[in-house]
Amino acid sequence: xxxxxxxxxxxxxxxxxxxxxxxxxxxxxxxxxxxxxxxxxxxxxxxxxxxxxxxxxxxxxxxxxxxxxxxxxxxxxxxxxxxxxxxxxxxxxxxxxxxxxxxxxxxxxxxxxxxxxxxxxxxxxxxxxxxxxxxxxxxxxxxxxxxxxxxxxxxxxxxxxxxxxxxxxxxxxxxxxxxxxxxxxxxxxxxxxxxxxxxxxxxxxxxxxxxxxxxxxxxxxxxxxxxxxxxxxxxxxxxxxxxxxxxxxxxxxxxxxxxxxxxxxxxxxxxxxxxxxxxxxxxxxxxxxxxxxxxxxxxxxxxxxxxxxxxxxxxxxxxxxxxxxxxxxxxxxxxxxxxxxxxxxxxxxxxxxxxxxxxxxxxxxxxxxxxxxxxxxxxxxxxxxxxxxxxxxxxxxxxxxxxxxxxxxxxxxxxxxxxxxxxxxxxxxxxxxxxxxxxxxxxxxxxxxxxxxxxxxxxxxxxxxxxxxxxx
Length: 472
Ligand SMILES: *Cc1c(COP(=O)(O)O)cnc(C)c1O
What we know:
This protein is an alpha/beta fold. It has a domain at 100-345: Aspartate Aminotransferase, domain 2. 42% of the residues lie in helices and 12% in strands. It contains 14 helices and 11 strands. Helix 5 packs across helix 11 (310-317), helix 12 (348-382) packs across helix 14 and helix 13 crosses helix 14. Residues 80, 139-141, 180, 182, 233, 237, 262, 264-265, 291, 303 line the site of pyridoxal-5'-phosphate.
């Protein structure tokens, strides 16, 4: 493709993209294709002769688009969002065009230095102490793995890195029963072992019970094990419960245990001064992760990872083969030493674009609005006697179920599961579920970039009508 042909297609694509943004609200939220349907429409063999980009776009529209679930439809209420915004998309276009691989400072000084500055902006915006330094990671899962590996090395005097995990005795990791599965994955990968992950019971509000944590740490110490790291969550995936950092952090400090905080979703709420209470006890935090690629209008992938002692992080991950030795080493940040991958995309650019284009006040206004919509939804649900709220509503997630009188728990679970599938099959909205104390729970997340109270109100009417239609 020549630059002129590229220009023509890029202009057409820009139109396609703007049209998509205008129309996405009218597309079915959840793709309704059957397994294998897309696979069988794609030829078994690649073309030998060049094909035109136009023919690719035709197939994209005919074959691919029906198999897309539209996360940017404001009626997407499932999981947690993966928000984009025009500012972020434009910056991604620049990143793709430059195609810079930003593994070390020299391979694009602007990428390294903009990343350093963006991590300072974000650190200050969310209220982490000034001694924290940050790097962008591809996902919260990777950031949590990075934290657990760093905690492992700190606990073993870097012995696991040099001699292998079996020389280090038995390490123990702690998290609550409501913690995201990425912690279990990290514990498996780190060599610490799934059976050394201790899941601490939660309180009525689904936050970690600090007393049970302390008991577990003491028990393990008395049995010759080494407590290594506690993962606390701000905004659990099921209900956005907030673990008590002050109580948990005090326990970690006493026992010299690393405190990692997973705020993948709720970290964005820390932009609001009225949510700084979530960070009470922040002086105890060793590492912290949140995902601008969830709620902060920045295209996937973009995870902000912060660490108090960057030297320990770097000592855990650095490698120095001959071809990576440079004259600037030690004077600049070479981010390949701050995590798992060597190669890195220029991801700071989209953060810069998002933060500048919205302005901090613009970001805060949108986030506040999402939180207000959740509060309003929770109010509307509470007004109906045949529905019930199943967890405290803290940020932008409402957990509830249909609970008509005269049915057994088992029947209620069945009804809610049926309700969830029936709603999603309409294509008009997309909800996901969790199970709380044995109850099948619908989760409605009001945090899509463009969601309004009007979308939520219409969705709520559909939910109510569909639910009542199930038994009448
Ligand atoms: C979404 C989520 C994760 C995983 O995030 P990825 O970036 O997809 O790895 C981890 N923890 C919590 C609390 C989450 O909500």
